[in-house]
Amino acid sequence: MKYCDPHVIIRGWFLVSIIVGFGCFKPDVIVLPGPPQEGFVLGPEDVIEVVVWKTPELSRQVVIRPDGKISLALIGDVVASGLTAEQLAETIADKYKALKENPSVSVNVMEVNSYYIFLVGEVVKPGKLQLKSYTTILQAISLAEGFTQFASRDSILVVRTMKDADGKHKEIRIPLRYSDLISEEGAEYNLTLKSGDTIVVP
Fold this sequence. Notes:
The chain is mostly beta strands. It folds into 2 domains: about 45-110, wza like fold, CATH 3.30.1950.10; about 115-200, Outer membrane lipoprotein wza domain like (Outer membrane lipoprotein wza fold like, Roll), CATH 3.10.560. Helices cover about 15% and strands about 35% of the residues. The chain is built from 4 helices and 12 strands, in the order αββββββαβββαββαβ. The strands form 4 sheets. It has a 5-stranded mixed sheet with strand order 9-8-12-10-11. It has a 3-stranded antiparallel sheet with strand order 4-3-7. Strands 1-2 form a two-stranded antiparallel sheet. It is elongated and about 60 Å long. The model is unreliable at about 5-30 (pLDDT under 50).
């Protein structure tokens, strides 16, 4: 399969692509290297602490349910999944405004359980990796104890599900070459993984 060199198109950015037949990877959207700019996004099974200032009876430690919600005193269910801790604190404060004047709310992440990736193909230990902090593609390969002798190291794909402009989920594929990742400019290609990403090493 032919591969379009990202150096040729735009330097230092990732071209997120869809495979079209046996031709080149067709550019779709651009993904910056480094941790997601929006911060850590909460998900199911994360343990968080909700603190309502000067109101200990409303403060509590909760686990985000599989449906992405938490239950809090007086206001009931609140959607937590898909939000950062700061965004969730703002949402909870808005709900408490009907009951309390100028509520001050903070959300602390106590335990991360929703951040995981999958590795398939020619790595020594394929499968699901449960992660506790942001992890790059090189770190994930290291955690899987590297490649097997049959791996096509320059044909790595990261398969990711993202929302399009209409809010619908769409699967995209990010082509990566190990030779780029370990080059002097490797930091430009060492993608930070998002929860649910699948690394395919043919």
